[in-house]
């Protein structure tokens, strides 16, 4: 698939809509609209969502906003693999176990079968209020049954692509092995790489190289690595993926922040721009529930970073690689 023509409205900076699904904390409809408007006003035209995000709340809010915009001017991706089904005995509790501050009156049910994926797309379209979505990603298949779900899920998604229901299909994961397996199927148009191609974590670099060779596009997400790269200094209680920051990552963060200060740039700007430097990358997706924060991210994404900064970063990577050679 020629992504440059098939998804012409996909912008280099995209918005990940988990936060408007009440990720971590409750967000009002007005706040959700405000951040989406800030995203649009910043020139962003790529929006990513999922049924998982707030048990459908993210899709509903995003759809309500996009209903006011010309359909040909934006690209929407959503995800498949988790169906939303009614809780048999809802008790009024919140979905905090999954990190969303929404009533847990629905539950997620894994389903990567053809019927499950077709149903997921239909229900997402209803929540979004759209006639079509542009991209569907298999969502975290490694958390269920990777080999079986890639086989059945991608076959089902490819059938929807071939029928013209969606323009592109892919896999979204934060596991390098799952991303590599997806790239090897020959079926995907896009991979969403979450947190594994960043200034702190390059573990998916070989996957991106493979994607560039095979014409697979990449969407880079979670570029701040649990927020570490959004700040120039880490506090003693900083967390990384549900635990304390490993000493090696803390050391690397300190070095990166010092390098950025040397060149007079913000660490967040370097983190946002890093992913787009790979030839496979089509977009860098960031999310927030605050309009002012997205405007700041958009400005950082557009900030001027000297070429020598990137050249020095490459030299540091080469020296680090050489230090491991026997």
From TrEMBL:
InterPro entries the record matches: AKR, FDH-like, NAD(P)_OxRdtase_dom_sf, NADP_OxRdtase_dom
> A single GO molecular function, which one?
oxidoreductase activity
Top-rank lineage group of the source organism = Bacteria
> What are the NADP-dependent oxidoreductase domain coordinates in residue numbering?
12-313
GO cellular component terms, semicolon-separated: cytosol
Q: Kindly provide the name given to this protein in its UniProt entry.
A: Aldo/keto reductase
Q: Which organism is it from?
A: Nakamurella sp. A5-74
**Lineage, please?**
Bacteria, Bacillati, Actinomycetota, Actinomycetes, Nakamurellales
